[in-house]
Amino acid sequence: MGVRGLMESIQAIKQRFGIIGNTPALNRAIEKAIQVAPTDISVLVTGESGVGKESIPKIIHQLSHRKHNKYIAVNCGAIPEGTIDSELFGHEKGSFTGATQTREGYFEVADGGTIFLDEVGELPLTTQVRLLRVLENGEFLKVGSSKVQKTNVRIVAATNVNMFEAIEKEKFREDLYYRLSTVDIHLPPLRDRQDDIHLLFRKFASDFALKYKMPTIKLTDAAIQTLLKHRWAGNIRQLRNIAEQLSVLEQNRTISAETLKSYLPATGSNLPAVIKTSKSESDFSSEREILYKVLFDMKSDLNDLKKLTLELMKNGNTKDVEKKNESLIQKIYGDDEDDAEYEEDTTTNSEVLSIPEHSANHTTPETLDKYHFAEEIEEEETLSLQDKELELIKKSLERHQGKRKLAAAELGISERTLYRKIKQYDL
Ligand SMILES: Nc1ncnc2c1ncn2[C@@H]1O[C@H](COP(=O)(O)OP(=O)(O)OP(=O)(O)O)[C@@H](O)[C@H]1O
Ligand SMILES: [Mg+2]
To answer: 0.70 exceeded by the pTM?
Structure first.
């Protein structure tokens, strides 16, 4: 294939697999994937968390003669050590407690196809021995069986950990490393892809505008500079999450450098508590959690306000109403002496609520916008928001071994609110 032909196919692959960017290092990685695809050579994809490693094995499989057979992606880091051998290689009936049926493993199911071993650095050493054997001669044993089976599987592995360090610490077998990394495809971190950063951001901004049916956000020149200078420890995944947060939360669709900075972890987010608890630097799922938390907090406040407004509309602003709704009012405006942040908010909040006739046409444009926004979310996301809230609370309680005080602090709610939620969800 000539240089032009190759460039054309790189562009076509990007289109087909939704890969954005034009950095030479990215093109080189895709080019390598195209070149090794027709062979059965093992490939190791390396690069920091969130750089887009997952699309490489898909490209390799789709461009190979194996494309009509199975492609199985296995996240080695997510499977418990006790079951991973059985997942990968299958087990014989009765081989351990609970093994009531003989089970086929991925290596049997994917015969003739491709297996993507994501986070391969997490594989236990005993599993590494089994894997080495499959790679060398296509042979494996089911757990609890002594019958040698054959399989023909192409392996693409990925890792975001330093494999040499893992080898040094004897957590990863050196022979397996060399066997897996016959060809190494490296994806560069986002900060080294300066020309792609704004391009990716615009793409995500337009995707989320469509998804949330809101106008597309746009960065000021200064904000673009901030975007380019940031370190992006979570790479494209982090950029995407920030584009999503901005798209959902910012009323002003032109984003200033200041606004952008408030979303970037280095300068401190407005909700630092949740970020701090993420289990590792690479775990950016917590940013999504923040987003959900903000949304369900808003929704819950809104429901409380609705209740109160209705009450006020029916009965007017009498002492009676105040008394009857004491707990609701306390919930909305804060009930904790030790909750200083809450008190600061009271003034701004009470401005909205001190207008009992508010359901008529005295609504300010701002509150109107917020209201409509929340309504829209309510229709589409109520269920998943509740799921998310439940999940957040569960996780937090787990992290703190059931200690409510710590969990409440982490979630940024009062202990009393947490208690109420625990009851609500029957936890
Ligand atoms: N070039 C790209 N264009 C568009 N989206 C991308 C690109 N690269 C990655 N993404 C998106 O970024 C996110 C992270 O990518 P991916 O899951 O492949 O990361 P990863 O390298 O496997 O990270 P980890 O090591 O943490 O698993 C995905 O949502 C992916 O769709
Ligand atoms: Mg991944």
So the answer is: no
